[in-house]
Specification:
Layout lengths: L9 E6 L6 H13 L4 E5 L9 H9 L4 H4 L2 H16 L3 E5 L23 H18 L5 E4 L4 H7 L7
Parallel strand pairs: 1-3, 1-4, 2-3
């Protein structure tokens, strides 16, 4: 059996703009600590993976905005699962973390303000806002904000990064 940190588990979140190396650093931290401690890794970004019937339903109902909405409830579930792992004594390394400080920035809420008046989207916007408020109550124990020059990000992901 692996050791558990003396004070119990904790959640570490890696945040930063695209091209910073969040996934790479999450993998490295997991490798560094895994040999000695119980470690779990969680991806709390938007992603394009398979799965979840509600996410698939939202994709078909709100086609133009599906990328923004499809993983909202799934992200909340991952946040809760990360904290459950920490409660069990694990070090949980999270690649990204949702925040409600800025709309559309660093995994924040993504439905633009001007769409709040559209009947179908206003309900989804309220749901998004509520879930982000709930996720704000589940803060990570440690947040590592990765920064670098634009040139480094552009080199890591050519053509995908905007200034």
């Amino acid at each position: 059996p692996k050791r558990r940190p003396a004070a119990g588990g904790f959640v570490v979140a890696l945040i930063g703009p695209d091209g910073m190396g969040k996934s790479t650093q999450a993998d490295r931290l997991t490798q560094i600590f895994r040999w000695k401690f119980g470690v779990a890794q969680a991806y709390v970004g938007i992603g394009d993976g398979n799965g979840w019937w509600l996410r698939k339903t939202l994709q078909t109902l709100v086609f133009p905005h599906r990328r923004r909405l499809k993983s909202l409830a799934q992200r909340y579930a991952v946040v809760k699962r990360a904290h459950r792992g920490a409660t069990r004594g694990l070090i949980v390394i999270c690649d990204r973390w949702p925040q409600a400080l800025g709309r559309g920035y660093l995994d924040g809420p993504s439905i633009p303000q001007h769409l709040f008046s559209i009947p179908g989207l206003s309900a989804l916007a309220r749901l998004e806002q509520r879930l982000y408020q709930k996720m704000a109550e589940c803060r990570p124990h440690l947040t590592l904000h990765l920064v670098s020059d634009f040139a480094v990000s552009e080199q890591r992901k050519p053509g995908e990064i905007r200034k």
